[in-house]
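in:
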């Protein structure tokens, strides 16, 4: 990115950005207008849990999980929910057994995990 415009066209939701490509394609002409996607960070694998699994109160998010056959509560850091669930950025590992229906479980309850498909 070489230059970012000083104003946003509110009606179109656009801002002028001047970019300088690392390599110039033969078809590119000076002053040509293009639509581009700018990747600011590469996507990384993330853990996603069902929306129903996350409880948020007092600014903290928690999930119930099963450890050694007992339901435990764990604080997690979550991102904005998407159509596939709630991304968890810290507090869980891929091997944790998250309770997907926390209304049916309570902390300290002894249970046998029913394994589902991990995402």
């Amino acid at each position: 990115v070489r230059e970012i415009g000083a104003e946003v066209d509110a009606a179109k939701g656009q801002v002028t950005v001047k970019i300088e490509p690392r390599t110039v394609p033969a078809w590119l002409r000076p002053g040509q207008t293009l639509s581009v996607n700018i990747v600011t960070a590469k996507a990384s694998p993330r853990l996603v849990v069902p929306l129903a699994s996350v409880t948020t109160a007092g600014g903290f998010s928690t999930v119930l999980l099963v450890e050694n056959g007992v339901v435990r509560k764990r604080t997690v850091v979550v991102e904005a929910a998407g159509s596939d669930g709630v991304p968890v950025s810290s507090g869980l590992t891929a091997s944790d057994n998250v309770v997907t229906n926390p209304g049916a479980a309570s902390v300290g309850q002894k249970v046998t995990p029913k394994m589902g498909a991990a995402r």
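note: Residues 55 and 65 are 12 Å apart (CA to CA).
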